[in-house]
Each structure stands twice: as structure tokens, then as C-alpha cells.
Design goal:
The complex is a heterodimer of chains A (312) and B (396). Chain A has 312 residues and is mainly alpha-helical. Chain A is 69% helix and 3% strand. The termini of chain B are far apart. Classes of the chains: A mainly alpha (312), B alpha/beta (396).
Chain lengths: 312, 396
Amino acid sequence: MADFTALFASGLAEGAIAALAAVGFLLTYKATGVVNFAQGALITFSAYIAIWVTQGGGMFGWGALGLIPGYIVTIALMFGVGVILERLAYAPLRGRSVHVVVIATLGASIVLIAFIGLWQGTTPRYLGSPVSPTELGIDASLIHIFGANIEWQRGVIVIFTAIIVVALILLFQRTQFGRQLRATAADRNTARLCGVPVNMLSMLAFGMSAALAGLAGVLFAPLGAVDLNFGFQVMLLGFAAAVLGGFGSIGGVVAGGIAIGLTEQLFGGWFLSDVVNSPLTDYKRVYPFLLMILVIALRPQGLFGRAQARRL
Amino acid sequence: MALVLGVSAVVSGSAGAAKAASAPVVKIVLLAETKGESSAAVPYYADGGAMAAAQLGSKVQLTRIPAPLTTAQAQTALLQAIDQKPDLIIGFPSSAQTIALQPTIKNSGIPFLSLSSGEQLVASGPYGAPNIILIRPVDTLVAVAETNYVLDTIKAKKIGLECVDNATGVNGCNAATKVIAAKKGASIFTQQKNGTADTDLTGQARAMSGADAVLDFNFPNPLGVMANALVANGVNVPHVDGSSASIIAGAKVVQGPAATNLNGADDCVPIASTDKRVKKWVADYTAKFGYAPIYSAAEVYDMVNFAAVIAAKQGSVTPKAILKGLTTQAYPGICNTYKADAIQVLSHSVDITKFDATGTVTIAKHLAFAPGALPFTVVTTVPTTSVAPTTTTKAP
């Protein structure tokens, strides 16, 4: 039971991070029709910004007290980075083939990673958390459930992801911004003709997507070390979650994220290791992507996406 | 006036020629990246070499060519280096690069000081060559040293093995498995694997519950994850890794029990040395570059200086002279005292490190290896420069 609980918590936290990354993909996709492949680099960048502002001579380098305001400032800065990214990598290419824009976002990702390498180097770095062992001590940083020790940080990830997801759902369903975004996603040209400021929407969508990347970065980084490839792994999981859930709804991609996380940890980690005792547990990183391939082979629009009808 | 000037120019030229004849300038190419050139680039090699070149002045001419990890790009860098007709090449940081490019290195005939330590590259190994010399102790010997530390110093009986799923982990775990199997009373409690970029090792950490010690052959980031996961899951036992331990401890990725449980293995630890000369060097390096050096900076620094010493003693920088110097002369460097053995390895020791709760490193034990020793490989060829011992153990 302890193993199951520990791995369930790990899978849930990993799935929540994947969901945050997936929602970031969804936002830009809905507003622009483009998948932003700079999302991983943005997650990495946010972790380094958080390290910069909260450590050493950073503006919030006060130790534990500076972490939360530092995180907030990081997320705000990332919103600005997202807007800049939209201005540089998307706006000039508006109207071009979607493939051109995707390649541009990939190029932006490479440039951003190179900048981080020049700025911060490649040595692994550590980002603290208010609930980490260094702040609270080992025992206080753990929750004990059914014999398993679970880091509070994983609980924080799940709680914050849930709050953000609910807030975004309300934003899309109950606000004018949400209605405009849905209209733009349905038919950009018609939305423009109806007076929807589609260009402003794409800027805001990129900004919000980057802010979500910022949140993913500051939540996930304290669980390990930060290096230049940190965000890439999260982006892969997020992309798989978005494809698995279907690019249509927030609920869908969140469900996809949870499925991704639980498949790796519960199926690959617990079932294959503890129940079946199979050496196939060594490949647990692969199974979420196998699941993604299986689902889109059977249902190309993803679990919760809507099939696109075409008039012949 | 013109005659006087002409005579003085000839005199100075002659004096210069005489000076050049007694201490020829050694031309060195360093194949390594530095900060910002790729996502895996570290500054230590370049900075160690630059510091040595700056101090040696006209005695050496050091050129650095970035050598990315991909074989194709590394090959381009190597060919550029060969085109410059250097007297010595120092490179590559990864065994995969050196192994893949061994034929080109061998055919060039240029003395090649390898920054990587794969056992396959020793003179008697399948990818050895008369002009390839290893700076660092052989990787399998270091793995054996780590394992022996777990068995003989920590006195663990049930050992959990954690292996990253690439050559580093495979070679290390294979060596450890053999050593543990040969030790009476010791056994492998569990053997787990992880990817180089894994970010959650809860399952692997929980599987170690019940082991007396964890022996890890890992990359820095997953090592940090594993060290913290072990403590979080109540596995509070000694955790021994290689050189990745110092990297994550220095980066404060591990603190508290995750750090105090951790041991590493480095070629040398300049910042923890009590030797006055080394301490001064560390202070000078830190002042020059703004960060404390690790073993790789010290090794490149030592090799550039060694090359200058060889050139002065041999009075020549031909490949034959440089090779003769590298294989016969000893050099007391910052990191080590280098002396080539029969399999053309210069270093024969490793420092087992330990860390306090804040990640500050000290040396727990200094372990030396017998020159020419290899743990498991049969020596199939004998270099002409010296006699190599033969072994009777089976090849892996």
C-alpha cells in the first residue's frame, strides 16, 4: 500500500505539471492555431529567473521569506516574455503557413536556451521552495499517508494546478475574454469581422501561456535540479498530455496530463515492478507515449477532442 | 647606424634562435567547449587551459576548438585541430567522442591527451593507440574503488545498485557487480535503472529500502533527485556515486541528510586540498574566473604545463619527442603526480569525497591504484615503451 500511495502521489504531481504545460499549449493553439514549441524553453527560463531573483544578490534574496514574492515576480516576468515571444516569433509570420510559425517557435526555443547557457552556465542549479526540506526540515516537509512519505511540494503542485485549472475554466466560460478566445479558436476571420481583437488576444494568450510555463517551472524545479534540459522533459509530457486529451478543452488536456503521470508511475513503476516484477519497469518513461500513440490510433482527436467534420 | 641595427637584429635573432632551440614553443590544441557553446558545455577545461597558457606566456601556444558532443561535430573539430599541425592535442571530454574518432586520432600521429577515461582507450584496449594517452584514472578502476569503499570502509553487506541507462552506468554497474560477487558475505540487494533526464525516482528510491548502502553510477541531475528521494522515503543509508556528487553538492541540490549521506569520487578535489601550492592555485583561479575550480580545470592546467616541461627537457616538439616525454617523464601537477604506466594512463588515484549538511566537500579517503592495473580486462598487446603486466581475469 505504501508503494502504491507514494507512486500515486508522484504520478499525480507529474501529471499536474504535464497538465500545466498542456494548458499552455492549448492557450496558444486556441488563439493562434499554432503549437508553441518554445514552451519547454519557457519552463526552463522561468526556473532560472526564479533562481536569479531569489538567490544571492537577487531582489528577493532574503532566504525563505523571499521565495513566494520571488515566484510571483517570476510568473509576472514570464508573462512579459510570452508577449515578447509573440511579437518576435508569431506576429511577423501571421498569415503564413502554420509550419513556418512552428519552426519559428522552435528557433525561439533554441535561442532562449543558448541565452540561458551564456547567462547562467550549464552547471545544475537548485531552486528552493517554502515547503522544501531545507526550509522546514525533513520531517516537516513530508506528509505521511498509508505508510508512504510524500513531499509537501507534490501536494502544492496538485493544489495549485487544480486552482489554476478551475480559474481558467471560469475565465473561458464566464468572461468576455474567454468568449472571444473561443470565437477566435472556432473561426479567426469571422471573429475578426465581428470585432474581436484577435491580435491582442494572441498576445494575451502567449503571455498567459508563458505565465503558466513560469508556474510549472517554479513548482517543479524544487523537486530536482535545474539545468538547460529541465523544461524539455516537461514539454514532452505536456505535449503528450495535450494530444492524448485532445486539443479542444482544458478538462481534456488536464485529464490527459493525469493519465500521462499515472501511466508512468502506477503502471510503469508500481504495477510492472511490485505486482508483476517485470524488468519492463525499466522503460516506464516510454509507456505514457505508447498510450498516446494507442489513443490517437484509435481516436485521432484524442480522448475528449471533437472529430473535425469536413464538407466535401 | 644601419649596420649597427642590422648587427643587433642578427644578434637578437641569433639569441632568439638559441633561446628557441633550448625551449621550443609547444603548440597545443584543446578540443573542448566552454560556457554557452552548448547545453552540455562547462567552462572548466577552457579556463584551466587559459590560465596555464597565460602563465606560461611564449612557452606555449594554446588554441581551443569547441568540440560538441555529437560525433559529426566532434570530427569536424578534430580535423580542424589536425589541420593546424599542433604538437599536442588535448580532448575530448566524452569517451564516446574519442572512441568514435580513434582511427582519425591514431592516423594523425599527433600525441593526444584524452580527457575521457574509458577503459577501451588504454594502450592495450580495443580503441587504444600509441599516441593516445589517458590523463584520468580508468573509469572501471574508479568504479571498483567506489565499490571497495562501500564494502571495506562502509562495510555494507546488502548493496543497492542504481545505474543510469548509458555507458557510464552500464560500465560502472558491471564493474561493481563483479566486485560485489567476489566479496564473501556481500550481495546486490536490488539493481535499478534510470534515464539521464529522469525527474522522479520515487520507485527506485523505495526499492532501496532495506539496503545497507546505495552505490550509484549516475548523471548529476538524476543523482540529485535520487539523493533527495532516498531521504524522503526513509532510506537513510550511505549513498556513493562518482564525480556527479561534487557537482550537485556544490550546486546545493542536496542538503541536510541527502548531502551527509552522499559520497563521491573525484580525480582530485583542489578546493579541499591542504597543500599550500594547490590552495594558492585555487585562490588564483577563483580570483581570475569568479568560481572555484574542479578536477577537470586542474587537469588541463597540469597538462599544458606538463607539455611545456616536456618541450624544455626534450628540446624538441616533434611527435616522437612529445610522446617520449609523456610516456617517460613524471610531472607533479596540481591535481596529481602524473606518470604514464604501461597502458599509457597518467593518473593512478582518486579521492573519495564526503559532504556536510550544506554541501561543502572534504576528502574522506585518498585511494591509489597500481600503475598498469586493470580490474577485469585481459591485456592483449604490450606497448613497446615498457613492459605491461598480464592479467588472468576474464574480459567482461
